């Protein structure tokens, strides 16, 4: 049996939720007198771990206060994200044979569990790696290295799917061929960040071409 490995980011990759995260930050920060523009969100927040985001936003605050704000924002996001939908083509890709799969995310576990359940994928993945539960989250390669280790997988037989600069950096640093999804960043920005192939979604013809380039053949249909 083949053991090709697919490693998926969650937000903006399995589900197009980045606009909801932006709205949650806007709603959480506004009462504190902090405004945030969409461009600032994409440049400074998208894909980063909450601890790093909160250090940048509140450099003079203590860890407990930063954690409180982060949880308030995530609770707001969970309230907004009840109707999240899968990115197009995901079901067909996951139905293919001979694949080991993992979710590798900087999202808190409560978010990941709610989203995967809402997407009908709660038990679909072999491994779910939460960056906040490790010593370092993305852009460090540790979350991806951890997923490979837990799966007993080889980076040379793996691909990652990411939508953010920090996620692409993490996957590349782990030696993994990376597809960038243009749910938030456009294709040139994804390639500039280091994505090997930029795709619109999982139904994009460039996906199967990229899988053949990586594996020699694409995963067999289920």
Characterise this structure.
By secondary structure, the chain is α/β, with parallel strands linked by helices. It folds into two domains: 4-17 and 84-215, 3-Layer(aba) Sandwich (Rossmann fold); 18-82, DNA polymerase, domain 1 (Orthogonal Bundle), CATH 1.10.150. Helix content is 44%, strand content 13%. The chain has ten helices and six strands; from the N terminus they run E-H-H-H-H-H-E-H-E-H-E-H-E-H-E-H. The chain has helices at 18-29, 38-44, 50-57, 63-80, 90-94, 109-118, 142-151, 165-173, 187-193, 205-215; strands spanning 4-8, 99-105, 127-130, 158-162, 177-181, 197-199. It has a six-stranded parallel β-sheet with strand order 3-2-1-4-5-6, sandwiched between helices. Helix 1 crosses helix 4 (63-80) and helix 3 (50-57) packs across helix 4.
Provide the descriptors you would attach to this structure in a database record.
222 residues, alpha/beta, Rossmann fold, DNA polymerase, domain 1, six-stranded parallel β-sheet, 44% helix
Topology:
Blueprint lengths: L3 E5 L9 H12 L8 H7 L5 H8 L5 H18 L9 H5 L4 E7 L3 H10 L8 E4 L11 H10 L6 E5 L2 H9 L3 E5 L5 H7 L3 E3 L5 H11 L7
Helix pairs in contact: 1-4, 3-4
Main-sheet strand order equals 3-2-1-4-5-6
Given as residue ranges, the uncertain stretches (5+ residues, pLDDT < 50) are none
Overall body shape: globular
Tell me the name of the CATH homologous superfamily of the largest domain.
HAD superfamily/HAD-like
What is the CATH class name of the largest domain? Answer: Alpha Beta
Share in β-strands: 5-15%
Return the CATH topology of the largest domain.
Rossmann fold
Q: Determine the mean pLDDT.
A: 93
Number of strands: 6
Structural class: alpha/beta
Element order, helices and strands? EHHHHHEHEHEHEHEH
Number of domains: 2
CA(first)-CA(last) distance: 13 Å
Number of helices: 10
Largest sheet: 6 strands, parallel
The CATH architecture of the largest domain is 3-Layer(aba) Sandwich
The amount of helix comes to 40-55%
Global Rg:
17 Å
């Amino acid at each position: 049996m083949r053991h090709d490995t697919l490693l998926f980011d969650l937000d903006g990759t399995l589900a197009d939720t980045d606009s909801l995260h932006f709205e949650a930050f806007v709603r959480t920060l506004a009462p504190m007198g902090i405004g945030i523009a969409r461009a600032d969100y994409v440049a400074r927040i998208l894909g980063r771990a909450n601890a790093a985001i909160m250090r940048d936003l509140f450099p003079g605050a203590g860890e407990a206060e930063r954690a409180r704000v982060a949880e308030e924002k995530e609770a707001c996001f969970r309230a907004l994200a009840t109707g999240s939908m899968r990115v197009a083509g995901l079901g067909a890709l996951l139905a293919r044979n001979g694949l080991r799969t993992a979710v590798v995310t900087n999202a808190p576990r409560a978010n990941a569990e709610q989203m995967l359940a809402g997407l009908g994928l709660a038990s679909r993945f072999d491994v779910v790696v939460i960056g906040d539960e490790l010593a370092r989250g993305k852009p460090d390669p540790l979350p991806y290295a951890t997923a490979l280790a837990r799966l007993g997988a080889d980076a040379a037989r793996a691909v990652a799917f990411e939508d953010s600069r920090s996620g692409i950096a993490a996957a590349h640093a782990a030696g993994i061929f990376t597809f960038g999804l243009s749910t938030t960043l456009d294709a040139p920005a994804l390639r500039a960040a280091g994505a090997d192939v930029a795709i619109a979604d999982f139904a994009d013809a460039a996906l199967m071409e990229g899988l053949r380039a990586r594996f020699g053949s694409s995963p067999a249909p289920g």
